[in-house]
UniProtKB/TrEMBL annotation:
It holds the Pfam family HTH_6. It comes from Vagococcus allomyrinae. This is MurR/RpiR family transcriptional regulator. Residues 1-73 form the HTH rpiR-type domain. PANTHER family: GLUCOKINASE, HTH-TYPE TRANSCRIPTIONAL REGULATOR HEXR-RELATED. GO terms for biological process: carbohydrate derivative metabolic process. InterPro entries: Homeodomain-like_sf (IPR009057), HTH_RpiR (IPR000281), RpiR-like (IPR047640), RpiR-like_SIS (IPR035472), SIS_dom (IPR001347), SIS_dom_sf (IPR046348), WH-like_DNA-bd_sf (IPR036388). The keyword Transcription regulation applies.
Amino acid sequence: MLFLDEMVELNDTEMDIYNYITSNIDKVIYMRIRDLADEVHYSTTTILRFCRKFDCHGFSEFRIKLRLFRKDQQLIHIDRTDETTYIDFLTRTAQPEFQAAIQAVCDILEESELTVFIGVGASKIMAQYGSLYFSSLFLMSIHIDDLANHPLYYMSDQVSKKLCLFIVSVDGENKEIIKNIHQLKLHNAKIVSITNSAKSTIAKLSDANIPYYINKEQYQDANITSQLPALYTIEMVGKEMRKLLNLK
């Protein structure tokens, strides 16, 4: 909340002040307390109480912290996409190691009767796309949107042994997904994954893993690593499976 990491409980009056400040930061950092009081139509005493809720002894300290917060915001930027990252990835997709990983996934899918896609965050969108893409090309596939409320624990052994859990994950460390993997492996389900690294926990727990290795990108608390390699890999697997089925 502004320059604080935690939320602050504000009454209606303080919320009016907060809304004005957040909408006019560039003006407020140069204002006197009287100027702000005139703008929001509240007393300077009310503004001082507001400042104390933000761990400031007075308006001057609040304004300094606000100025530093604004400066940090302006310094944050997103680097332009480096096309060489994608060129390098595409080059690696033609290498024997990557092709072998694709084939290992296809071998499992050939023996499966149902594919369940899962992913979290941006990877969830890739998982949704994967389920649609596979269903259109060769095999009935579904996507589980919320593992917490739709756990995969209670499938029968008869269903599990013909199930392929297809995981899309950049960091490969999601705890909820890992918990479901352990449960499904007890029932002989097959696990395949697309991750950024073969060294991640999900990759190591998978029966087959396709790592794509691109630079991880972070913006504040969000993982904004490109999903293009995951998308391309899903389509490669789908097309390879369709090709294999056409040969039979």
